[in-house]
Specification:
- By secondary structure, the protein is mainly alpha-helical.
- It has a single domain, classed as Flagellar protein FliS (Four Helix Bundle (Hemerythrin (Met), subunit A)).
- Helix content is 82%, strand content 0%.
- It is built from six helices and no strands.
- Helix 2 runs antiparallel to helix 3 and helix 3 packs antiparallel against helix 4.
- The protein is globular, with a radius of gyration of 21 Å.
- The relative contact order is 0.11.
Length: 142
C-alpha cells in the first residue's frame, strides 16, 4: 500500500468515526475551502477548475441540507434549510456569472455558520451549583 492510499484510508476512517458535531465542522471547512479554491481558479481564468470546486462545495452544502432533521430541529432546521438553498442558488449564479464577489460573500456566510457551530460544539457543560454549594461559597462580612 503506497503513502497516498494510507492517507486516503486515514481520512476515510477519520470521517467515519467522527462524532456528528465534528463532522459538521469538517463539512463547513470543506465547503469553505472548495469555494476559496474556486475563487483562486477563477483568478487564474481556469474556469474548468472553478466549476470543479464549486461542484464540490455544492455537494457538501447539499449533504448538510439533506442531513437536517426537521422533526427534532424545528425552526432552526427550517432556517438552515432555507439558508442552504440560498447558498446553493448563489453557487450556481457564481458559476454562471463568474463572480468572485459572490464567492467571497458565500465564504463569509459559511464562516459565520461554522463559527456558530464551533461555539455550540465546543461549549463546555455549565455546572449549576446547588443551593448548598452557593451557601458554602458565600462569605459574610461582619
Amino acid at each position: 500500500m503506497n503513502h497516498n492510499k494510507y492517507c486516503s484510508q486515514y481520512k476515510t476512517n477519520q470521517i467515519s468515526y467522527a462524532e456528528q458535531g465534528k463532522l459538521i465542522l469538517m463539512m463547513y471547512d470543506g465547503a469553505i475551502m472548495f469555494i476559496k479554491q474556486a475563487k483562486n481558479k477563477l483568478k487564474k481564468n481556469d474556469l474548468g477548475g472553478m466549476g470543479l470546486y464549486l461542484g464540490k462545495a455544492e455537494s457538501v452544502i447539499s449533504e448538510l441540507s439533506n442531513s437536517l432533521n426537521s422533526e427534532e430541529g424545528g425552526n432552526i432546521s427550517k432556517s438552515l434549510e432555507s439558508l442552504y438553498n440560498f447558498i446553493l442558488k448563489e453557487l450556481l449564479l457564481a458559476n454562471i456569472k463568474k463572480d468572485p464577489v459572490v464567492l467571497e460573500k458565500l465564504t463569509s456566510i459559511l464562516s459565520k455558520l461554522r463559527e456558530a457551530w464551533h461555539q455550540i460544539y465546543t461549549k463546555e457543560e455549565v455546572k449549576i451549583a446547588s443551593p448548598e454549594e452557593v451557601r458554602e461559597s458565600i462569605t459574610y462580612h461582619s
